[in-house]
Design brief:
alpha+beta, Alpha-Beta Plaits, Chitinase A, domain 3, Trigger factor, domain 2, 5-stranded antiparallel β-sheet, 13 strands
């Protein structure tokens, strides 16, 4: 029998469901009989409670369950018969005024369907694709970072002035308008000159001082300084140098490579290992940046209506995630915090829009992730760890983690397809530009 689908709005539909009262009552009786075999009630042995007593106690809840089940089954069957892609849960209400025939009960189901997604010809879609290479300079810079992480310090001569890279131990006290302030005083405080650990004026004042020397200097705190009480104010500091230690960086040789656990403990093996790690990081950053560019481009090239049910569902997830974040930060009663949905509405709509476009591209171009792609992605993620096989097992051992991986691979497939078919402009980035970007 054909299902009559009424269009209420762009994506909103209504269908009327009719159920035979006899079938509902028979199922209620059947469930009550099964319940009577196991139910325990005062004054009766188990399994010996009279049916009328069971019906009186449990009849309403069983009737409610049966109606829910039967209506749900009828709705699923009707939606399937009409080839409807239902978004969210239907709102079901019993119809008034006996619209169903005698011996039947009637319900209206109001719901949304997923939209038709129209995507423009990709050959006309413009995407700026970033590229970057790992050169010798990037490897040299990484080697310097590794050397600094393993440096040692030795006392300088008593008359040697403090200079960049030295570790100095100082006492200091700051005052604003002659008054001490919180956090403005310390003893035996250590920092490295020239590494940005202290404000510029503090480093400049200490540079060139010798052990035992004291100096007073003005220091202007920036307006955006994290200490709100002193932000934008100028303090007078008295600093006394107590110890100066020179940094000794290890030589880049086989011994250094061994301390880093490199399998091929040679300088060439160390450089190759660094190159491999940097290339992996560059690959992931480029993938992330280019994927964002692709998604922005296809969203601009697609036409679709957004199902409210999907947006509301995404809003709910985002609000819950915000509450979980507040809870993790130790905010009291985070689960009851009033979080306005409108804060997230724009992003929720963007996510739903993108999800529907990606799903449509996957469907029409057969871009679902293949097992070998998923395996390769997980192995790439695991490659930077000490025991990659353990990390691979960790991923495959959890359904939620694997679902995330499958989603990421599917997005990568879509990005690759668009980049292969769209109008691409290559934009080379230096290694430093790519690694310094916030959204990589």
């Amino acid at each position: 029998m054909a299902v009559n689908v009424e269009t209420l709005d762009k994506l909103e539909r209504k269908i009327t469901l009719t159920l035979p009262v006899d079938a509902i009552q028979n199922e209620v009786n059947s469930r009550l009989k099964r319940l009577a075999r196991t139910v325990k009630m005062d004054g009766f042995r188990p399994g010996k409670v009279p049916m009328n007593v069971v019906a009186q106690r449990y009849g309403y809840s069983v009737q409610y369950e049966v109606m829910n089940d039967k209506v749900g089954q009828a709705f699923a069957a009707a939606a399937n018969e009409a080839n409807l892609k239902v978004a969210g849960q239907p709102r079901i209400t019993e119809t008034e005024g006996g619209s169903a025939a005698e011996g039947q009960v009637s319900f209206d189901a109001v719901f949304e369907v997923y939209p038709e997604v129209k995507i423009a010809d990709l050959s006309g879609v413009e995407v700026e694709k970033l590229t970057a290479d790992v050169g010798d300079a990037a490897i040299d810079k990484t080697l310097e970072i590794l050397r600094k992480q393993r440096r040692t310090f030795a006392l300088r001569g008593h008359d040697a002035p403090a200079q960049d890279s030295d570790r100095v131990t100082v006492d200091f006290e700051g005052k604003i308008d002659g008054e001490a302030f919180q956090g403005g005083k310390a003893e035996d405080f250590q920092f490295l000159i020239g590494e940005g650990q202290m404000l510029k004026e503090f480093e400049e004042a200490t540079r060139g001082m010798k052990v035992g020397e004291s100096k007073t200097f003005p220091l202007a705190f920036p307006a955006d300084y994290h200490g709100k009480d002193v932000a934008g104010k100028t303090a007078d500091f008295l600093v006394t140098v107590k110890k100066i230690e020179a940094a000794n960086l290890p030589e880049v040789n086989e011994g250094f490579a061994k301390t880093l656990g490199i399998a091929d403990a040679s300088v060439e093996g160390l450089r190759n290992d660094i190159r491999k790690n940097l290339e992996r990081e560059v690959k992931f950053r480029l993938l992330s940046r280019n994927k964002q560019a692709v998604f922005a481009a296809v969203m601009g090239a697609a036409e679709l209506e957004l199902p409210n049910a999907s947006v509301q569902s995404e809003l709910g997830r985002m609000v819950e995630a915000a509450r979980a974040d507040l809870k993790q930060r130790g905010i009291k009663d985070a689960d009851k915090a009033p979080i306005p949905e409108d804060l997230f509405r724009s992003e929720a709509e963007r996510r739903v829009r993108l999800g529907l476009i990606v799903a449509e591209l996957v469907r029409i171009h057969n871009l679902a992730p293949k097992p070998e792609q998923i395996r390769g992605y997980v192995e790439d993620l695991a490659a930077s760890y000490e025991k990659p096989a353990d990390v691979v097992r960790w991923y495959y051992g959890d359904a939620n983690r694997m679902q995330e991986v499958q989603g990421a691979v599917m997005e990568n497939n879509v990005a690759d397809y668009v980049l292969a078919n769209a109008k691409i402009t290559d934009k080379p980035l230096s290694f430093e530009e790519l690694m310094g970007s916030q959204n990589g």
